[in-house]
Protein 1
Amino acid sequence: MNFGSDNWAGAHPEIAASLTTHAAGFAKPYGESDLDAAIEEQLKTAFEHDLSAFFVATGTAANSLALTAVSKPGGIVFAHREAHIIVDECGAPEYLSGQLRICPIDGEQGKMNLKALRSEVERVAAYDVHGGRPVAISITNPTESGTVYTLSEIDAISAIAKEFHLPLHMDGARFANGLVSQNCSPAEMTWHRGVDILSFGATKNGCWCAEAVLFFNKPLAQDFRFLRKRAAQLFSKSRFVSAQLEAYLKNDLWLRIAQHSNALCRQLASIFDACPRMRIVRTPAANELFVIMKVEDADMLEREGVVFLRWPEAGMGVVGEGEVVGRFVTSFATTGEGVRGVGGCLGVEVEGINGH
Amino acid sequence: MNFGSDNWAGAHPEIAASLTTHAAGFAKPYGESDLDAAIEEQLKTAFEHDLSAFFVATGTAANSLALTAVSKPGGIVFAHREAHIIVDECGAPEYLSGQLRICPIDGEQGKMNLKALRSEVERVAAYDVHGGRPVAISITNPTESGTVYTLSEIDAISAIAKEFHLPLHMDGARFANGLVSQNCSPAEMTWHRGVDILSFGATKNGCWCAEAVLFFNKPLAQDFRFLRKRAAQLFSKSRFVSAQLEAYLKNDLWLRIAQHSNALCRQLASIFDACPRMRIVRTPAANELFVIMKVEDADMLEREGVVFLRWPEAGMGVVGEGEVVGRFVTSFATTGEGVRGVGGCLGVEVEGINGH
Amino acid sequence: MNFGSDNWAGAHPEIAASLTTHAAGFAKPYGESDLDAAIEEQLKTAFEHDLSAFFVATGTAANSLALTAVSKPGGIVFAHREAHIIVDECGAPEYLSGQLRICPIDGEQGKMNLKALRSEVERVAAYDVHGGRPVAISITNPTESGTVYTLSEIDAISAIAKEFHLPLHMDGARFANGLVSQNCSPAEMTWHRGVDILSFGATKNGCWCAEAVLFFNKPLAQDFRFLRKRAAQLFSKSRFVSAQLEAYLKNDLWLRIAQHSNALCRQLASIFDACPRMRIVRTPAANELFVIMKVEDADMLEREGVVFLRWPEAGMGVVGEGEVVGRFVTSFATTGEGVRGVGGCLGVEVEGINGH
Amino acid sequence: MNFGSDNWAGAHPEIAASLTTHAAGFAKPYGESDLDAAIEEQLKTAFEHDLSAFFVATGTAANSLALTAVSKPGGIVFAHREAHIIVDECGAPEYLSGQLRICPIDGEQGKMNLKALRSEVERVAAYDVHGGRPVAISITNPTESGTVYTLSEIDAISAIAKEFHLPLHMDGARFANGLVSQNCSPAEMTWHRGVDILSFGATKNGCWCAEAVLFFNKPLAQDFRFLRKRAAQLFSKSRFVSAQLEAYLKNDLWLRIAQHSNALCRQLASIFDACPRMRIVRTPAANELFVIMKVEDADMLEREGVVFLRWPEAGMGVVGEGEVVGRFVTSFATTGEGVRGVGGCLGVEVEGINGH
């Protein structure tokens, strides 16, 4: 009954096996092995578009260096107030870009409010050298709140980006969960919508360590080889990432894992829904779920061995006296048994939760 | 017959197996798992000293953040002219520290000349705010030239560091090879000598990706948690590094691998020694070997399937017209058969090269 | 009738004269002249406290380097949403500190709301390495809105700073105008209140170029000599600043200029107050005045030769259709004649506006 | 008898007078006044070329931001080992550019050796992402050693820059002294030779504070407005620099001052030449003179009131036991009387030293 986070899980067996398979033999280091090249080709196929792919060590690196690639002196990036790049990266985007400021945009359900976004971009664009200048818009999909931007919602943000000639970056730390949620193709979620750069996260979805920056807009990648090396993000034995991604992409493993995680998240939601003492916050659309509960219920769940995080209330809406927000995340390692176990703790039984 | 580099090899089978073993189950992310804690304890035991250990993604990250941890405004680090931090890290130390300048020190055999080192440190320390100030001395052991500082040579540099109240950093990208070469303990190579911070590299010695910064002088690590996260170097599933190091340290695998690599390097050297058309540059003491040869011999070896790098001559001494420097590196994956194969290409046979 | 800004004025005649006086003769450069030392002593006397004073080129430099001096990796500074360091410095604080993030705090009248401030500081302090950490609180006094924090308002913010062990920085770009407004001493406005570092601005108040960082908390200045030089902010002929400040401090010239500017600002306000088509925004307390007017009135004033800035509405409250915010700033160079001239344009006459 | 440095002098009377003249009246701040525009035009006339001019606070800022303007990730600049940007700027170029490394080039007489320069540029250009990449060549003229590159010497360096497609930067902290020394026009010293960016220093030559970056290659200035503001180098009352430069350029005051300084430096040299106990180091060509003397002579001169700096020997050639290098600098404020005074101390009389 561990819902701590999708990075509390280890690696999917097929991914671990691939690492063992590729452990033998010699190959060029620093991203120049045949396997590295093959994975880039597979990504092109998966996204139905030419692209440049760069492995980095962490999602924070992917986001920060993606934004660094489009930064300019005085540059300002626009992102939702709760975006990972603002709240959870310890200043890495400012640090690695050497200055970038991230302008927080309000919005319900973890999604940027269009009017607020336009207003802030306009204000900065209109001001002079003192105020800096817009350089990018960044969206997280799925969002930090477990919701997912629909394709038309992305279109609306993309239109603002295009109007102001700004590249559009997507933080896809849980990209596969978003795809499955929207039942769309990788292409439809990204470059069809005008996304220029994607932080393509695979770690949370069953890899040990596999994060990449994908440039659909290849000229933006011009300096990235140097940016990555200079930021100490160029793995020597880079095929250890490629080996993971080979298994990840093979037979749609990535989508199957995400379907599994999303499905179990929905089932967990149905359990909370059925429990009158629990209130689900926002509309879960991927593999994250935020629930308001009484402190004593949270204590009880933990005593029973349910692992989840108590979340800062900020922006989570009306949390009453004696209440707490719990975050639950599912992953490839989550089992139907674990989900049913939560139901058991709450005295709730829901049909249709399958599997072990 | 691949001697391209020790990072052309993949992962040692025991290390790959450990990753598979630890792929299952849940554990706290971001360096807070039980396994992460256990590995830190094992490192304390291996080094016979209390220490703080931080995993990072690359050796460049280890070096750059170690130096950032001791940096100050106007800071200058002193290192050998051929040091990895000067020649091979694309400016990462300057970038990640936000300014550090690295003052190159001359010296034979890849080792800093003591008089030159003292003279430069004195000059900077004596000057005022315009000239900056000394903040650290960094040595690479084994050096970039394949030589190894003896314990007394480290003592002499350490004495200068202590005299000027400078922390001493050691870039140990091939640390195990150095230990085996000097037949000394980890403690004797490091804090016994006054080394404050070690970049502890395991990737080149059989891991997929395992680099750590070890602080024997723990107060210097005060801000490192933030430095690492801010530099996008904090792995979420950090136990994938711990799992590698568990196997690495177990039953002295790391030392056994290094003994293997060093031994095969010596045997390769004996082959080149026996070939009058080849001149070994510097005294190989670990698992790297630099050889001056005629261009036609280099071409022939490559045609025969021997993989090695043609090295820039800079600092490699007298390279004649029509000659080239070849670098050969051995690793856990190097075989006696491969070494004998080089002998075969050169028509040289040497006794005592064992194993497959 | 020029109210463009207090930096549209040149230099006060006494300040220009002092520069001429000190143009002759030789003196040590880089802040080490006798005159530089004498001015530091005069500042100690004026502030009734020991302090370290450092000249820099601009107010942006003073603010950014003051914050850099107290920065740490992952550091977050708290400041009002409209603070100069957020809105008007093109990212200089992030850039010069190498990462600092500035967390915007809401609040009426250009002043931080105490509850909002405490809530944000608490949130960041409670979170872990991912969220960074609080490193300073910065207030602007007078504020960007032309209001002035009272002594007790500063006390309340200072209490939060002390509670969280954060240094308190004051951006005093118009410091003298604030003093005169509150009718208090330099000491009472600063270290009496717990202010640790002051950006002491004199340029806007009649100097050509005279900005200093004053550390009442001297240990915080430990690295500042290097910070300043490294940021290219160490003037060689530093006595050209000292010469200005000599005249500035002599016979309270600085306070007399501020009294003049504040008085004329009040008189200008009384004119706008008397004009029913104009609405004064916020309560002017120093030498800046924000007025909502109809676009046609703004056009008319400009045609008549009144110079002022059309200000972005953001945060300025309810600006109706066809209305605009005008910002008017007075300085040593503003004359009663100029102020009366504005009254003339508006058909308003107010008694008690003296002087030329 | 003050030869401490040309920044120990204050301001030339004509420059001080111009500041007083322009102290009155209102003008747009931040470089947008009519006077600012007029000075840019005068610089175009003086240099016989279109250009973009940006005032900054210090020579260090001019150099560091000029190089930042042409920097790229992994960027390496090539400069003489004794260049101000390496030895005297406390890491400002690395800091303000966010990473730049400066590769020191050897060379006699303070001038880069062509072969050494080419060899280093070639080495870096040939290496891959690990080694970074060349981004600029920077020369100082007059050099830090008081010598001056001839026009053909600049041509030779410029040819290497062009061959490798690198912009050529000139640190002209004492630019006027160099012009007068070579008896050439500003154009001939700069863009005729292929210089793309000039740090145009006027402070040392009689101004209080007047440094500018001049881009002859205007596309390189594209981001400079933002670079300057972000680096806290945009003066609000920028016309205080323009006012100085107005007087500086008027009736060739700048060249007359430089002629005066250079002439007195030659005369001082003739005194040292006539004194057998003194050895002039390098060939003084501008207004700096390095002299090897016995410590007791240095002591005696200081007792007699001669002010000069004892210079670090590094690179100054053979300094014997009991000897010291003295640096003497002349300026607009140096008098014939002062120079004759040195002769008096040494018991040397030389004809032809005129003026007070």
Note: The longest strand of chain D covers residues 133-140.
Protein 2
Amino acid sequence: MSTLFLRTLREDPADAELPGHKLLVRAGYIRRAAPGIYTWLPLGMKVLAKVEGIVREEMERIGSQEVRFPALLPREPYDATGRWTEYGDNLFRLKDRKDADLLLGPTHEEMFCLAVKDMYSSYKDLPLSLFQMQNKYRDEARPRAGILRGREFIMKDAYSFDVDSTGLQKAYDGFREAYIRIFNRLGFEYVIVQADSGAMGGSASEEFLAVNENGEDTFVRDEHGYAANVEAVVVPQAAPVEVTAGSAHVEDTPDTPTIETLVNALNANHPRADGRSWTGADTLKNVIVMLHHPDGTREPLAIGLPGDREVDPKRLETQVAPAEVEAFEGKDFAAYPMLAKGYIGPGALGESKSSAIRYLLDPLVAEGSAWVTGADEHGKHVLDLVHGRDFTADGTIQAAELREGDLSPDGNGTLTLARGIEMGHIFQLGTKYAEALGLKVLDEQGKLVTVTMGSYGVGVTRAVGVVAEDNNDQAGLVWPREIAPADVHIVVASKDSAAFVKADEVVRELEARGVETIYDDRPKVSPGVKFKDAELIGVPTIVVVGKGLANGVIEIKDRRSGHRREVPVDHAVDEIAREVAR
Amino acid sequence: MSTLFLRTLREDPADAELPGHKLLVRAGYIRRAAPGIYTWLPLGMKVLAKVEGIVREEMERIGSQEVRFPALLPREPYDATGRWTEYGDNLFRLKDRKDADLLLGPTHEEMFCLAVKDMYSSYKDLPLSLFQMQNKYRDEARPRAGILRGREFIMKDAYSFDVDSTGLQKAYDGFREAYIRIFNRLGFEYVIVQADSGAMGGSASEEFLAVNENGEDTFVRDEHGYAANVEAVVVPQAAPVEVTAGSAHVEDTPDTPTIETLVNALNANHPRADGRSWTGADTLKNVIVMLHHPDGTREPLAIGLPGDREVDPKRLETQVAPAEVEAFEGKDFAAYPMLAKGYIGPGALGESKSSAIRYLLDPLVAEGSAWVTGADEHGKHVLDLVHGRDFTADGTIQAAELREGDLSPDGNGTLTLARGIEMGHIFQLGTKYAEALGLKVLDEQGKLVTVTMGSYGVGVTRAVGVVAEDNNDQAGLVWPREIAPADVHIVVASKDSAAFVKADEVVRELEARGVETIYDDRPKVSPGVKFKDAELIGVPTIVVVGKGLANGVIEIKDRRSGHRREVPVDHAVDEIAREVAR
């Protein structure tokens, strides 16, 4: 500690919100270099190397071979698959001195596909599984929570190559098992959820989400074992209902541009015949957003959903990708005078209607159901407007928020919601990339077949962040032993030179046995400061060589439980080694 | 080998010139992804990891601490030191989605300096030594020889921080020793030469050059131990000589725009009084180049040197850096009508002359010496033009080529020339960066002093390339044991299943003893192809399990010497392990 490049901080960094992020900065593991771009300090490097080691070990265990593709890549392969454009603003693009287009790799499907195409030609060469671990780049709009969502980050990406879908399934299952082993070893709570395969194309895909209330992802679970990222949930279309409403009628509803004001006005001025109160669930809310396509064009989209639900931005983004979602603003309303803001209804929406805006309905809107919705005139709503009788839309969209208590997609369970952080993602890509780039091999019959691929990612730097979020207390970080920056943190809590001599000896003996130590040998720092630093840094075992020495004992403290015990100084090394090996 | 991601090539790759580069591609260690940008295949990753391991071990041995700064960096610190501009076209620059300027780090002096500034404040915190190993980026005009000069490459860069120059010298000496250990372990011939500190600023600096006839660097040595990169050689100014020439006189020398034609014409039409022949050494050649400054401006420069020498482009570039050297072309001559191409003389050159072009003389041009040189008129030269009497220049420049047999700078030795590849560079940067970025600490007297820095680099991926250039033969690569992709390459040279069973057993036992193996278990590949592949891949020990098995023996071959011996199959594992441990 007297020479370690480290200065612990007593104050939280201004730009950090999550506890783990604050502690990683305060304890000197990482430092911010630019928004979303971090430097790894010596303690951080130790943890990172251990996480990389675990990932590498588990990849090699399933026979995946390590390679390393460049981070700086030529444009052409990404043009061939469309990702040069589809990635939009998330892709870092640059030009070299000869004006050639380059990019910083976000993932490497294209490059792996081309390398295999170049080297392999027969079904006998397959199956093949390759992985790499290196810096990836994404120009995130909102870099977040330090290393949880950075713009430069280390990812382990892997790819499998098989001649048919049976082979792909086997590779996928192998990676799934390997990921379970990796995340079990890393030491945080996670769930495996069905995932949307998004911009990657392909079919089956699952995510490993760290369960964390500060996570950006929301997932659902039911009591029968179903679990899915909300982006991947397909809410079934509500079954048609018998029409019971009378004919639709427009009513004056002045000053009711929101669902809340509308419901209040309905209950005050338009009581129902059966005496029930109106609620937001009786209203049909029509939300308009602007889609920004990767080619630069913009196009509005209208979404009709029950008034008691909001549009879930991530579910919507998933549905419209690679387009990005922007707000439909004042100037946009000016371009569509038929839209009465706050009173928009199906009368103006739809490709065949006056606005010509594509109009999609939430699947909860059953055919035959009656709604209160905008009458496309300021201060007016239409009541008893029946879906299928009085209006139709251009299709449906999975964009409404899901709620605690909603039915599972199979109709047999009840959903609960929780939040998570994506730590791993396994995809059955299928032939999308192989087709775009012409990766074919000869099969047993001598016929050319397109290779089928899987793609498998682990956020390596992110894993360090998640472990920190999941393993801390008021005093600091509490590392799981397998990835701690050291096994033991030895504090000399005395000014007596005998304590230093004894501690030197203990450190030497431990290192000789292969036990990694952090040794707080700072001569002029008070024991209190040293204890605080040890708790902050979070090595699992803390050893105190101090006043107990007079009685022939030193103290061993378990960082996680706080349990302390004194051991005779003569057995100290053995006792510590035993503690470390547990 | 039946599953390894590898296809050896019988043909040399079209874009490779050097033997090591050809073999690294043919043997499946690396693959070109774009000009100057390479992919590392599984065999290459093994070698790379071992080289990285050696470098890390030797850095940690001298107490340097590993960190990792981002590769994607903000512009501001590089503006503060001027390198954003000075790096010119060699720097990869890009913009993020918010239009902020970013760069891909070529080296990280600025970032390290700022981190230390932020964390340290006292002389008690020093000395400090930090290193990192990661991708660096330079947009080379001429990427070359595969991984020897790439645009994305792995470099180990390290920085030392001291309170005074005594501390810096100690740090520098420590790195020097560590580098000697690293390069001795890597297994190629190298020399330590005085170096120019170039764009990095600072004072003392040495390079570790791999001795290689295909190298881009030229260095000189003398018989007394002096060694320097030609860029760093300072040729002493020739002592003044007594003027013996008569007065200068212009002569008609039609059609003599080159030194050769001029010398011939002089000998034919203007014989010397003393009967000696004219040679190129009697003529003063004036070369004009165009300097391209980082700020985009262009400026001509004239260099006067003995006609029997050429301007050395690298020595010139070093002198004019950060400006780049371009040709002075036809359109440039048009802008300077006073320059008679092929007959340019000191009469038109110099800041006070008609051209106003800055004119610098080679230090071999002694005051008092007489020359034949251009008379600034087509077809005319001036004879007996005496330096100091008839013309002067604006200064001197170290730009002429050095020659075998030239005097050493100290005048006591004779130079020999050789070529090399820069593998390591150690610099005493001094306070240049610390001053630009305000890195100061309080000294023992409580006074703020600027920290003095050293900077130390090793080309890690380049080292793999150099070892390959230095260790190969007609049949393929010949790896030094410490960085070979495996210890033993086991070939089954038989279709007999007993041979496979025995080889499986040998491989299993070797692996259990920690011996790394490549196992050629391909069932349908002929022994000849397997032998060829083994020689090409270049693992130091090759074991053949084949027809000898009938007589109870297997063959052990030393890849480098070609020496073969048969050992009883029962002792094979012991014998191989002994061979590997040598």
Note: Chain B touches chain A through 50 residues (CB under 8 Å).
